[in-house]
Design brief:
By secondary structure, this protein is mainly alpha-helical. The chain has one domain (13-418): MFS general substrate transporter like domains (Growth Hormone, Chain: A, Up-down Bundle). The chain is built from 20 helices and no strands. It is globular, with a radius of gyration of 21 Å. The termini are close together.
């Protein structure tokens, strides 16, 4: 365990809300693009084959992951040098402006090839910002948390992502109810993105009052060798790869329900609400229970349940493609996955040395998501189209869940409540 003993930093609930809400708003902007992939594909990539249009839109979604490692190196690295607070302000401003750029870009019919070029550039800026956001904001939460409540504080990171998905889903459902399919595809999705951009002043106001947790003395110390936290880095990479794939398969349920199952947009977008609610509640439960019982049981057993439940869940969904079945399968799989993901993420964060926590976490997270998370929705859309098998996403998710389960089964316990006195005395 590598959380250094530092002086307790007094923070208010409003300041904690600033970190959580800021992260939620940033992920809201990023996720909206994926949720409206069908409509965005029709706007910027018109094609005679709807599947080709969708694949091009999902490829643009994946472009945002290409710049995540760069953002992780720059923003995450600077978070370990000049502080967490200024980097959280920078990442929030960048993703807000890039989201606004996508929202106001004219369609392909209006300006031709310039339109998709602008959208790709905006997506790359979004990815750059999110590449550094995760490490700096998570490091901040870990460093302000009381030892006995560290899991609860870090769980706010995933809970914020769940809140963003929930908000995006609610807005999507409302738009689908009040708008026709043609209007939703033409300009309705732009409203959802503009709402995200409009929150930038609020997020900046909340984050600018945050205290700094990286003190000058710590920032001036030499970087620890990678071999000192190499085992943690490998565990982090494998689990984040697993969560990236499984998470984005479930985020794809909106598109899957519309394209593969043939459900209307209003019903399909409801899957996003299920994903958001399950992520929010599952993350908070994982944080609370892992503080009480330790990290390992609350990552291993829920991950085992996820692995076992993937194939039966998708079989039920494809056999009985109703709204109720869509929401039930999506919620249950995402809930147990969120519990496991949160507990594992907490173990990773509290095991990394403070001197490299922001940068190392950002880079590991960004690489895993860039290679696997960014390609997931494109891969499963392609596999479904090529094989004609609606269970293709389930097989992809099953393999990823099994990978995560193996990594967790080999992980060490890191919760302070379950550490021996000798282990705690040896923490650096």
């Amino acid at each position: 365990m590598s959380i250094e003993p530092t002086a307790r930093i007094a923070v208010t609930r409003r300041q904690i809300l600033g970190v959580t809400l800021g992260n939620a708003l940033e992920f809201y902007d990023f996720l909206v693009f994926g949720f409206f992939a069908v409509q965005i594909g029709q706007c910027f990539y018109p094609a005679t084959d709807p599947n080709s249009s969708l694949l091009l839109a999902l490829a643009t979604f994946g472009a945002g992951f290409l710049t995540r490692p760069v953002g992780a190196l720059v923003i995450g690295g600077l978070g370990d040098r000049i502080g967490r607070r200024p980097m959280m302000l920078l990442s929030f401003a960048m993703i807000g402006l890039s989201t606004l750029g996508v929202a106001v870009t004219p369609s392909y019919a209006a300006i031709g090839l310039v339109a998709p070029v602008i959208v790709v550039l905006c997506r790359m800026v979004q990815g750059f910002a999110l590449g550094g956001e995760v490490g700096t904001s998570t490091a901040f939460l870990a460093e302000i948390a009381p030892e006995a409540w560290r899991g609860r504080y870090i769980s706010l990171q995933y809970a914020g992502q769940g809140a963003s998905a929930l908000l995006a889903g609610i807005i999507g459902v409302c738009l689908a109810i009040v708008m026709s399919e043609a209007a939703l595809g033409s300009w309705g999705w732009r409203i959802a993105m503009a709402i995200g951009a409009a929150t930038v002043p609020v997020g900046l106001a909340l984050r600018r009052t945050l205290p700094e947790t990286l003190h000058a003395g710590i920032a001036a110390t030499p970087m620890p060798p990678v071999r000192s936290y190499g085992r943690v880095a490998v565990f982090a990479f494998l689990t984040i790869v697993s969560f990236s794939i499984t998470n984005y398969v479930l985020n794809y349920m909106t598109t899957f329900a519309k394209v593969t199952l043939g459900l209307p947009s209003g019903v399909s977008l409801g899957a996003t609400v299920a994903v958001g609610l399950a992520t929010l509640t599952g993350s908070l439960l994982g944080g609370v229970m892992s503080d009480r019982d330790g990290r390992r049981p609350w990552m291993v057993w829920p991950m085992m349940a996820t692995t076992i439940g993937v194939m039966p869940g998708f079989w039920l969904l494809t056999s009985y493609p109703t709204a109720l079945m869509l929401y039930a399968v999506t919620f249950i799989l995402r809930f147990v996955l969120a519990v496991a993901a949160t507990a594992a993420f907490i173990a990773v964060v509290e095991s990394l040395p403070m001197r490299v926590r922001s940068g190392a976490l950002s880079v590991i997270y960004a690489l895993a998501l860039s290679v696997f998370g960014g390609s997931t929705q494109f891969v499963i859309a392609w596999l479904t189209g090529v094989t004609g098998n609606p269970l293709a996403p389930a097989w992809y998710m099953f393999v990823a869940a099994l990978l995560g389960l193996v990594a967790m089964a080999l992980a060490r316990e890191t919760a302070p409540a379950k550490m021996s006195p000798q282990s705690l005395a040896g923490c650096s």
